[in-house]
């Protein structure tokens, strides 16, 4: 068989262990930790799903090596915590039985201990320890680790590595990046020590070296050790890439894989986990630069989800391994699809941060485009339905497509009718905004997935009651979506007005002096896009906040992007009239002001399309309604409801 991506699909040997391809599952954690800090069955199922999908390795994330100085909630593996060894053993088993190498991330977050706690009050009981005394940005005191504690922590890394090996893990990852304890020692910003661990770079690297020696002693030769580091801390006062290269050279003989990430969790979240506003692979340059100076194999990651880009990274020698976190939430089968040349069926990560926001807010796992994530044990397995039924799906947006795909996978006969000449629904418009292109692609891919399981897709086919009765389905899933909400503002029907949903058809109508009416998520994002095109952009919002509908991880980056882009923001401005000169508004002081501009993009929200539901609710024994036609919401809601409506048929 000729593989389309031969370099990505090629095995690699690290230490004495063979990995089946070059696509590794990066650690993703902070969720579903049992009350006694072990790995629960839900986490095990989560990791197993990744292994089944074909990743060469799956890394179980953050095992706290020294709970005494890091009393956070994360996994503990020790012989004192009842069940911890068995829980890790079950997890390692679940990964290994699918041919993936099970790895576990050994971690200590140092002065950021407790960062992941959802219930922040619990932090009161924690002591934060770092290389040096100080105060955290949130006002918490950081205490300098004594030599005795350093020795204990170094030893603990070895102890936990040995236990992980005993549990069946075949690799360990030592977390030395993202601002956590080892990174704090490496960093001239955090490390102000004057003893053998501080000052010169050689001294700052000493703690990492001692940790790695301790781990090596525990696991023995040939057992692969992966070291995760930030190639550069990417903030003023932190270490830069030049020092990153030197650090790599000082530790390379102690490890089997150097994993080069970027930045820190606290000071560069949107770079460490590259946001949609950055190009894909924006951190690869760090791995590439470091690789030129070391002999040890190098891994890279950050916003990678395109097989061709990943293939090129390996083929051109920028890195030996690519790692993915979010891309494997979106589609755990990405590696399998790459290896079997089915890459056109990969559901790509949108970089919407639903995963990170959900983790921060509820400590659970969720992914917009994958309804199974975090719920792998909730009867999610798609099994053939006992009785095959005829299912009519009305509407080919993300919810309808997901519903049709899931229903067909269950063996039902599925007809999907879409009134337009292509599927994708509201996502079709996103093709015009480069940093949201994956949203458009989601519609295209779901369409292909539907075809791959035999869904009968009928385009240009609005569903009337008569048509539904002719089709005579056992179940109808109405996914009719939403339509633009147009308040009675004079002039909204003017020649200079473009509805955001139509923007991809009417790009040329948007002039260089554009007003975006509506500062919700869609309005903010399109405003950023126009600013990137070099237009003068004014963003008008009647409320006092921009985009309250954006999630807690995306929103700060969105607002920062708006500020950076030089967009003029008019909050508390209610549009009264649109005319050829711009938009007439009333401001907070009730004054009438003209915001000047030569074109107006209207992003005033959507409203549910209820007419179709009202028409069809009696046209089959089971009629379910999903997504925006029930209540205007997110892609996440549409996809989840679509999947479950199909599971319920
Ligand atoms: C939901 C989620 C949880 C994560 N948890 C961890 C973690 O526990 N430890 C860690 O080192 N990195 C963690 N990360 C960071 C990832 O390993 C990775 O470095 C980052 O997301 C960039 O890769 P990506 O663009 O492929 O997502 C997490 C990322 C996500 C999305």
Please tally the helical runs, counting DSSP H or I stretches of 4 or more residues. Answer: 20
Helix content: 25-40%
CATH topology of the largest domain: TIM Barrel
Number of domains: 3
Radius of gyration: 26 Å
Q: Which residues form runs of ≥5 with pLDDT under 50? A: none
Q: Kindly name the structural category.
A: alpha/beta
Largest sheet: number of strands, sense, barrel closure = 8 strands, parallel, barrel
Strand order of the largest sheet: 3-4-6-10-11-12-13-14
Q: In one word, what is the shape?
A: globular
Strand fraction:
15-25%
The N- to C-terminal Cα distance equals 39 Å
The mean pLDDT is 95
CATH architecture of the largest domain: Alpha-Beta Barrel
Q: Regarding CATH, which class of the largest domain?
A: Alpha Beta
Work out the number of β strands.
29
The CATH homologous superfamily name of the largest domain equals Aldolase class I
Q: Which molecules are bound in this entry?
A: flavin mononucleotide
Description of the molecule:
The chain is an alpha/beta fold. It has three domains: 6-113 and 127-344, Aldolase class I (TIM Barrel), CATH 3.20.20; 390-483 and 607-648, Rossmann fold; 497-604, 3-Layer(bba) Sandwich (FAD/NAD(P)-binding domain). Helix content is 32%, strand content 19%. The strands form seven sheets. The chain has an eight-stranded parallel beta barrel, surrounded by six helices. α7 (241-251) links the parallel β11 (225-230) and β12 (257-261). α3 crosses α4, α14 runs parallel beside α15 (437-452) and α14 (398-409) packs parallel to α20 (635-648). It starts with 5 loop residues before the first helix and ends with a helix. The mean pLDDT is 95. The structure holds flavin mononucleotide. Flavin mononucleotide binds at residues 26-30, 61-62, 105, 175, 178, 261, 273-274, 301-304, 324-327, 355-356, 359.
